[in-house]
Design brief:
With 220 residues, this protein is mostly helical. It is built from 11 helices and 3 strands, in the order ααβααββααααααα.
Length: 220
C-alpha cells in the first residue's frame, strides 16, 4: 500500500476507530492487564477522544471478546484462558494456511512489494530486541498476510484469532525462549507469498502455527 493510500485510509477513520485501534493493541499486548476495569470516562481523557467514541470502541472490543461488560459492575479486560489454546490452534491450522495460499495466488503487485519490504524488516530482528516490540511486528506480519488474501470475512476471523493467540504469547513472554527466532521465521513465508508459491506459503504457515502451540505447551 502506498503512502498516499495509507494516508487516505487513516483520514477516513473516526475517533471511535482510532480509540478502537489503540485499545485493541493495549489489550492484545496485555498493556491493559487481564481483568483490569475499563472506565470510559478515564479512557476518554487518556486518549483525548471523549466518552462517546470510547464507548463505541468498547462495544466493538466486546464483540472481539477482548473486553466483557457486566450490568452494574462495569467493563473489564477479558482473562487469558489457556483452555482456549487448543480451540484457537484447531481453527488456525485450517484457516491460516488457506489465507497464506490465497495471498500467494491473489495479492496485488503493490501488496507483494510491501510483503517483500516487510520480509526485509523481519530479517533484521535481533535476539536482544524487546520481546514486546518483536511481537508487535509479528502482529503486523499476520495482518499484512490476511489483508493480502483479499477476503474480508476470512481476514476478520483471523485477526480475532491472532489477537487471542498473541495474548497467550504475552502471558508467557518472560519465559518463552527464541521469540525473535520464531518471528524471523516469517521472512521465508512472506517471500513465498510474494513470489506466488502457494504450496510453500501454506506449509510454512502450518509449521508456524504448530510451533506456536508447541512452544506454549512446553511451558505448561
Amino acid at each position: 500500500m502506498s503512502v498516499n493510500a495509507v494516508t487516505t485510509v487513516e483520514s477516513d477513520k473516526t475517533n471511535a476507530d482510532h480509540a478502537y485501534d489503540i485499545l485493541q493493541e493495549r489489550l492484545i499486548m496485555l498493556d491493559i492487564a487481564p481483568g483490569e476495569p475499563l472506565n470510559d470516562e478515564k479512557l476518554g481523557v487518556d486518549l483525548g477522544y471523549g466518552r462517546t467514541p470510547v464507548r463505541e470502541a468498547l462495544k466493538r472490543l466486546e464483540r472481539d471478546r477482548l473486553v466483557v461488560a457486566f450490568p452494574r459492575r462495569g467493563t473489564f479486560a477479558t482473562g487469558v484462558d489457556m483452555t482456549d489454546l487448543s480451540s484457537i490452534s484447531e481453527i488456525r491450522r485450517q484457516l491460516e494456511p488457506l489465507a497464506a495460499a490465497r495471498a500467494a495466488r491473489t495479492a496485488t503487485a503493490e501488496m507483494r512489494r510491501a510483503l517483500v519490504e516487510l520480509a526485509d524488516d523481519i530479517a533484521m530482528i535481533g535476539d536482544d530486541q524487546d520481546p514486546k516490540e518483536v511481537l508487535r511486528k509479528d502482529v503486523r506480519v499476520h495482518r499484512a498476510i490476511y489483508r493480502a488474501a483479499g477476503n474480508a470475512h476470512l481476514e476478520d476471523i483471523l485477526v480475532s484469532l491472532d489477537a487471542h493467540a498473541t495474548r497467550i504469547w504475552c502471558l508467557f513472554l518472560d519465559r518463552l525462549p527464541h521469540v525473535a527466532h520464531h518471528v524471523r521465521e516469517h521472512e521465508a513465508l512472506l517471500r513465498a507469498i510474494a513470489s506466488g508459491d502457494e504450496t510453500a506459503a501454506a506449509e510454512l504457515t502450518l509449521a508456524h502455527v504448530d510451533g506456536f502451540e508447541t512452544a506454549v505447551r512446553n511451558l505448561l
